[in-house]
Amino acid sequence: MELLSNYLFAILQPFSKDGWRIVSLISLFFIFKNWHNWKKDKLILSIFFFLLYGIILSFFSEYRKESFEVMSNYSIGCFFSFLLGYSITNTSNKIKLLKVYVYVFMFTLFMGFLAYFHIIPEQIGFLHLAEYNRLIVFDGGPELGARCNFVIIPLFVLYLFYKKSYMFLAIALYFIYALLLSGTRNCYISLFITLFFISLFYIYKNKKFLKTIFILLLLLFCFSLAYLFSSNVKDRINKTDIKTDYSLTSRLEMYKLGLKLIKEKPIFGHTPKAAIHRQENINNLPHFHNIYLDILVDFGFIGFILFLVIIYRIFTRLIIMYIKTKSPLPLMLIFAWTAIMISENFDSFLKTPYCSGLFFWTTGLILNTDNSTESTENYDK
To answer: First vs last Cα of the chain: how many Å apart?
Structure first.
């Protein structure tokens, strides 16, 4: 039953805003039998204590309903999704599930391309594909950009460090095109920085400078083509001005407000979602567009430390797993998490279940292993 639930998650997560959440909740009834292992897992305990702390704060919130809504999003995106992926130990099943997710995501993007170029309507039933000359499929341009990066980076890792198939490169370019049409500039930045880190690691591991330079030039060429031949991409980049671009000016105002609010209640914070109501001369932004600032304001330094412990445990477990197995799965996630943590300086993707659900489900999927991870054989199929 755990395997079926994970397949449903892999199919619904890139295709539905709510279906995968229902699967995550229902699956708890089938995977709860593993609770005796969960209580020994330091990463699961770290996530649990962060959520418990947030729920306790919500009881004292002036905006209790909104606070509990924030914590339910964290719970579904970070905790329930992680546990669902964590219920799978067989390596071949992990790879099949990841393939299913990528294939379904590719299909939804194809529908988005059709809507973007006005071949089909921008919205079909509950499927919201494009708006304002931006690809959004389905939860918004920024969220789409983060999810595209999550696929692009692992594909480059596979191409560079394992199977040298141009198919991986071609699929990565397909997702890069979607990323460009999403107009998510912070994801452009995080992708380039992360690819630079990947390149440095590739040079360190293989001492192949020319291939790395070729790939970086190819990416630069693709971005240049998109800039030259897509007026929407060009307009999105050209309007980037710290004095006139509302997206940037409003962020700066939110950052100033966030720092002011942190000084008011530095230890316990203002409780989830409460401080956002203190906006002054800002057009009702839903969060502070910086996950670190968001958590410091909402949860205080105690919550921020609990959050950093989660991130620390994720990275250390993935690094240890990679050193031990030399397999692509943990290496892919190390760089994917690097990209999202860079992006989180400009947005709050991990507050969005659509993004956090994908990251934590995949992390749980990869970190829970059986004896097959002692060898790289199964990973390279």
So the answer is: 25
Instruction: Look at the pTM and tell me if it is higher than 0.85.
Output: yes
The string of pLDDT tens digits covering residues 296-340 is: 999 999 999 999 999 999 999 999 999 998 888 899 999 999 999
DSSP H or E run through 35: helix 35-38
Task: Count CB atoms within 10 A of the CB of residue 214.
Answer: 11
- The residue ranges of every structural domain in the chain are 2-380
Residue with tokens 């950093």: 308
Nearest to 361 by CA among 55, 17, 20, 30: 20
Partnered with residue 128 across adjacent β-strands are 123
Q: What is the token pair recorded at 221? A: 């060429």
CA dist list (Å): 103 to 15, 96, 99, 146, 261: 11, 11, 6, 17, 44
Q: Are 336 and 366 in contact (CB under 8 A)?
A: no
Report whether the peptide linkage leading into residue 175 is cis, meaning its omega lies within 30 degrees of zero.
no
Neighbouring CB atoms inside 10 A of 308's CB total: 14
Q: What is the pLDDT of residues 134-148, one digit of tens each?
A: 888 877 778 889 999
What contacts 24+ positions apart, CB below 8 Å, involve 197-200? 197/335, 197/338, 198/153, 198/156, 198/157, 198/160, 198/335
Instruction: Pick the closest to residue 183 from 237, 251, 130 (CA basis).
Output: 237
The token duo for 48 is 């649990």
